[in-house]
Amino acid sequence: MVEAVLIDLFSLPANLQSNIQGLLCSTLETIEKCSSVYAPFVYVMCCQRQGSEKKGEQEFLLPALGGFQSLKRRLEVVHALTTAAALYTIKQRLDEKDLSIVKVILPTLRKDLMKAYIAHLFTAVYQFEFEDLQVVSDSENLQTSEPQGEGQTLPSRDMAFIQNEIQMHLESLPSLNGELTILRSSLIPDDTFLHGFTTRTGGISYIPTLSSCNLFSSSKRRDPQIVVKENLRRLANAAGFNPEAFHRVKTDHANAVFIMGKTEPDSYDGIVTDQKGVTLAAPGADCLPVLFADPVRKACGAAHSGWKGTLLGVSMATVNAMVSEYGCNVKDILVVLGPSVGPCCYKLPHESAKEFHRIDPKCVRLFDSASPYIDIRRATRVLLERGGVLPENIQDDSITDQNQNITFCTACHSDKFYSHFRDGANFGTQIGFISIKN
Fold first, then answer.
1. d(CA 10, CA 294)
2. Strand pairing category for 430-436 and 279-284
3. At what angle do helices 156-172 and 111-121 cross, to 10 degrees?
4. CA 171, CA 227: separation in Å to the nearest integer?
5. Annotated Gene Ontology MF terms (predicted)?
């Protein structure tokens, strides 16, 4: 069932501009007649000319809109200077109402162009159907439309124009929920390394569980890659790294480590380099983002350590990669554990808890319960110390001076961090990042 209808009047052919009211009336009549039981939300997308007043254009369309009482509260005219701005506004409306099945009614010549915009601004969460504006009639049913498919390939210059237009619009948007904030460790020397852990403020992601500096996109979430790219650009500007030389681990919740400069595996949870100016990153939204720095050999690394990766020793695997590849001495390597779900909140089934109990009984609280509380931070520290990392070279939540603490519980601090444990499937993601300064 179609949940929303988008009528694209943004760039009508010249022969149709004089009959815009007639076209709109015909289209709305069809929607109303075919939606007697369930009325979809309707968005009419129009171009706001430079210097024109939005109110004047709305008054021009009012005669065409006035008679549709069943759609009255569900119909909105969206004016903008660009297609990107109009479509992004409509995306916000869809997301506010948690809508995902959309019919797009538009001129035939706009179809491939619109599909390109949609490909950039939406994810696989949404379903789109397309119908030609010229052929709308009373007999056509909203449920039997052409499904989204592969259209004609747009010229590369058109694709570049679309991407540039979207980027310019996203760059113009104000930051949400406060300033962009980066947490830094005093353990890692800032004369050699650039590093930090992000929080959730200062980006443009507007969906509550993703707001606002979400740094990960997937087919199951509503933040498209281009929005995440804009958040990353803002982070890079604030932190001082090059977003074009940015490498994030491809998580598999295991212990594989990618050595920068060698063949990249399909998935890995650790990454190391001795190249200057290359920023490494590990995500975290309850899982641990862990940063590694050797100021002697000038090498660094990042790892993503969930409960499975912790048990598999991904942090020590990252240390071992630095030792074997760059000749690091394990006693010189500094390790900082970033924000993650804490032992105050995190539970696992008893069978999984047994594995943490074997590492150290202090990693488990209420061990005899069906779902004991687990401390993946302590388990990480114990495994690192057993591998030869000096205790004083590890920073976690056991730090004496709590003013220096950056290993916060992500589930407890909803104002600062994303949490899968707390927010459910459509959760946002923060990162830990590090690079060697030029």
1. 56
2. antiparallel
3. 50
4. 10
5. copper ion binding; hydrolase activity; S-methyl-5-thioadenosine phosphorylase activity
Query: Which amino acid type is present at position 391?
Result: P
Q: What would the two tokens of residue 392 be? A: 């004083």
Give 161's contacts (C-beta < 8 A, 6+ positions apart).
none
Exposed/middle/buried for residue 61 (C-beta within 10 Å: 0-12, 13-18, 19+): middle
Which pLDDT value is given to residue 425? 86
- In angstroms, rounded to a whole number, what is the distance separating the alpha carbons of residues 268 and 260? 12
Question: pLDDT value at position 149?
Answer: 44
Q: What pLDDT, in 10s, does the model give residues 100-120?
A: 999 999 988 899 999 999 999
CA distances from 116 to 80, 167, 205, 339, 362 (A): 18, 14, 21, 37, 54
DSSP annotation of 40? P
Q: Provide the 3-class DSSP secondary structure of residue 172.
A: helix
Give DSSP secondary structure letters for 75-139: EEEEEESSHHHHHHHHHHHHHHTT--EEEEEE-GGGHHHHHHHHHHH--TT-EEEEEEGGG--TT
Cβ neighbours, 10 Å, residue 269: 30
What's the structural domain count of the chain?
Answer: 2
> How many alpha carbons lie under 13 Å from residue 402 in its C-beta half-sphere?
1
Asked if 243 contacts 236 with a C-beta cutoff of 8 angstroms, the reply is yes
Rounded Cα gap, residues 407 and 377, in angstroms = 9
Cα angle, residue 375 at apex, residues 339 and 286 outer, rounded to 5°: 35
Q: Which residues pair with 302 in a beta bridge?
A: 271, 291
Asked if 308 and 389 sit in the same domain, the reply is yes
Asked if the structure places residue 153 within a domain, the reply is: no
Residue 24's pLDDT band (cuts 50, 70, 90): confident
Residue 113 CA to residue 337 CA, distance in Å, equals 45
pLDDT in tens, 346-391: 999 999 999 999 999 999 999 999 999 999 999 999 999 999 999 9
Answer yes or no: is pLDDT of 56 > 50. Answer: no
- Residue-wise pLDDT tens digits, 153-178: 789 999 999 999 999 999 999 999 99
For residues 125 and 138, the model is more confident at 125
Write down which residue in 172, 195, 220 finishes a domain.
172
Are both 101 and 199 inside the same structural domain?
no
CA 434 to chain centre: 20
Same domain assignment for residues 118 and 27: yes
Q: Which residue has the tokens 């590849």?
A: 325
Which domain CATH number covers 121? 3.40.50
The CATH number of the domain where 314 resides is what?
Answer: 3.60.140.10
328/420 same-domain check: yes
